[in-house]
Design brief:
mainly alpha; 0% strand; 260 residues
Length: 260
């Protein structure tokens, strides 16, 4: 497979997402001392880069995994593992039922697009007209978005919507008969830009628009796995572990260093 002279592998994408996520959560952990300072705002804006990349990686896993149900099961297991660290750092233990971690957002989005694909294939085998088949396939996605709102997952239904839009953008190339990695990247980028525009317009502020920086590595993604030096379980486990570490640091080291 031909690649661009300068390109990005899935492994590199994961590290970009992980680093920007840590910057975001570290800023959140230091809010008590930083307030709405330029440093705080910069750290949170850097963090907007992470979620779109994680969504692209989620759908890459969905495309290439040998067992999609097992993939979904792993996400749900780590959603359970991550919930207490997430509550301790990001919501506060007294408000632990008010929001659920990003693994549950990803799980709902994955279930939505997986169900949509199965339903679309079922309709196509029965020669149901394509517009009707697409409408049927949209139903489980809409249900997943509603579940995201009801369960108050991270990013709420908006997070599930991003997964659906990126999936739709990436798969639009099939209908355009241009199924190349670059075309899928462009489709994903269109979905991300549309989502960020809708999100910020719906909330009345500029926030997720900073995440369009993620389009640079996404457009450079070459579709290759890369030379993994860390197990996939490292990246699964990194999320709950880094939340727990930041929680401990916030109440010990950060409190000591930034007090005054």
């Amino acid at each position: 497979m031909e690649t661009q002279k300068f390109s990005v592998t899935a492994y590199a994408l994961k590290w970009i997402a992980v680093v920007t996520m840590v910057v975001d959560h570290a800023g959140y952990a230091c809010y008590k001392w930083l307030g709405w300072s330029e440093t705080y705002l910069l750290m949170r804006r850097v963090g907007r880069i992470a979620f779109p990349i994680f969504v692209v990686l989620l759908l890459e896993g969905f495309r290439y995994t040998r067992n999609r149900w097992l993939y979904l099961r792993n996400l749900l297991i780590f959603a359970l593992i991550s919930e207490i660290p997430f509550d301790l750092l990001l919501t506060g233990w007294d408000r632990r039922y008010s929001s659920q971690n990003i693994f549950l957002t990803l799980s709902l989005g994955l279930f939505g697009v997986m169900s949509a694909e199965l339903l679309f294939d079922w309709c196509r085998k029965r020669r149901i007209p394509q517009p009707a088949a697409l409408l049927c396939a949209a139903l489980p996605v809409a249900a997943a978005i509603f579940a995201g709102e009801l369960l108050e997952v991270d990013y709420h239904g908006w997070g599930v919507l991003l997964i659906a839009l990126v999936y739709a953008g990436e798969n639009a190339v099939v209908f355009l008969r241009d199924d190349t990695q670059l075309s899928r990247n462009v489709g994903a980028a269109v979905g991300i830009v549309l989502w960020a525009s809708l999100y910020d317009a719906g909330h009345g502020w500029v926030n997720e628009a900073y995440g369009v920086v993620s389009l640079v590595p996404i457009l450079l993604y070459n579709g290759q796995r890369g030379n993994y030096r860390m197990s996939k379980w490292f990246f699964y486990g990194f999320y709950p572990v880094h939340l727990l570490v930041l929680y401990v640091l916030r109440d010990t080291v950060f409190k000591w260093l930034l007090a005054g």
